[in-house]
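Table S2 (text version). Query chain:
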Amino acid sequence: MSWDWQVFCQDTITQEVGASCFGKGGDITYLDWMLSAWGWTVSVSLLSLVVALVVGSLIGTLRTLEGSPWIVRLGNAWVEFFRNIPLLVHIFLWYHVIPSIFPAMKSLPGFVLVVFALGFFTSARIAEQLRSGILALPRGQRYAGMAMGFTTFQYYRYVLLPMAFRIIIPPLTSETMNIFKNSSVAFAVSVAELTMFAMQAQEETSRGIEVYLAVTGLYVVSAFAINRIMAFIEQRARVPGMIAAGGGGH
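Corresponding structure-token output:
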């Protein structure tokens, strides 16, 4: 068995190998297609991460509010619902069921619906991590904020959340890497990301090994880049002497 990496220089229409692996004059090679698919994967992943961070931070904070049992129950219900339903089912619900309930959403492209599905799915996990981070802090920090006359919003904003986010950077790193991996389910609703490219390209070229090795390499590069970025953020945000296990008293 011999490998033929020239497959990425082939034109996607004529299947002929061109002088350059980058198409010219409107021609598209498999390398062009793969890089475009990588762009879609990165776009889905980053936008889903933004949704997950915003919603997950809100839900995670609500689950730690004292004296608001119904709000806490609402946050718990959100986490249980999105954690206990498989991601592919969420994609199906957002693509087929929810638009039939809300007709205005039928005009949204599959890309947007996938971002919401993946973002909300991941938000439940981030909410649980943030809740754990807040509860890991010494209880005295909450009381110190209250003693200074801060409102609930203020002592969360200026005291609890900045420290909690520092604590949960390692699990957030894993979750960010997972979002890139989970973005592969977008192929189920015809988003032209890496997994869909790999499935179609290997069918057209019969070079599955080369195609899947290249796609795997791009996933590895993406995951490694995320790991290094988050490690840099963790190093810059670290508070000397503050460790996750150091909290107690809740």
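Notes on Table S2: The chain has nine helices and no strands. The two ends are 62 Å apart (CA to CA).
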